[in-house]
Structure to design on (135 residues):
């Protein structure tokens, strides 16, 4: 058990050094699975959370090069998470994603600290382009 923990810590250290650690936050389990599998296939080490509080706990514990969050979630929404994440880890890049088309949502996301914004539905290729620009 101890060896597995040490291996996990080493994996995370390497992923952080290479800017390959990504935290994905969405209350839609299918979206979490799709993003985690797709990004893992591209060589990223991913952790997932279904709400903002869990995401902040993971961010404090592990650190990440990138956080990808949905906007509409129960409890803390993605904009609130973005602002809180920047307080916890000012250097983390954040991509906000949403299916809603509120006119000023992009500017609200940027004001909260987001590095980029993507509308659902999107392709993995679209997301990868944004990720590569940021990290």
């Amino acid at each position: 058990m101890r060896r597995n923990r040490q291996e996990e810590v080493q994996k995370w250290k390497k992923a952080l050094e290479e800017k390959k650690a990504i935290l994905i936050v969405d209350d839609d389990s299918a979206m979490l699975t799709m993003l985690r599998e797709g990004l893992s296939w591209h060589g990223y080490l991913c952790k997932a959370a279904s709400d903002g509080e869990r995401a902040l706990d993971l961010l404090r514990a592990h650190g990440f090069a990138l956080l990808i969050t949905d906007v509409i979630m129960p409890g803390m929404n993605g904009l609130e998470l973005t602002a809180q994440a920047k307080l916890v880890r000012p250097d983390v890049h954040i991509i906000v994603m949403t299916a809603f088309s509120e006119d000023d949502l992009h500017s609200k996301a940027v004001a909260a600290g987001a590095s980029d914004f993507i509308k659902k539905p999107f392709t993995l290729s679209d997301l990868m382009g944004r990720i590569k620009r940021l990290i």
